[in-house]
Amino acid sequence: MRRIGILVLVLLFSFASGWATTHELSDSGSVAASHRPGKFNATEFIFDHIGDSFEWHVLTVNHHHYSLPLPIILYSSNKGFNVFLSSKFHNPTHSYKGFKLETEGKYKGKIVELDSDGNINQLSPLPLNFSLTKNVVTILFVCIILCWIFISIGNRYKMNPYVAPTGLQNLFEPIILFVKNEIAIPSIGERQYMRFMPFLLSVFFFIWFSNMLGLIPILPGGANVTGNIAVTMALALFTFVIVNINGNKHYWKDIVNAPGVPWFLKFPIPIMPLVELMGVFIKPFVLMVRLFANILAGHMVAIVFMSLIFIFAAMKFWLGYAAAPISILFSVFMSILELLVALIQAYVFTLLSAIYIGMATAEHH
Amino acid sequence: MGLVTPDYGLLFWMLLSFSILLFILKKFAWKPILLGLKNREDFIAKALKQAEEAKAELAKIQEKNLELAEKARIEREKDFQEAKAFREKLIDEAKEEARLEAQKMIDKSRELIRQERDAAKKELYQSVSALAINLSEKILRKQFADVDKQREYVDELIKEMSQN
Question: Does the beta-carbon distance from A143 to B17 stay under 8 Å?
Answer without folding.
Answer: yes
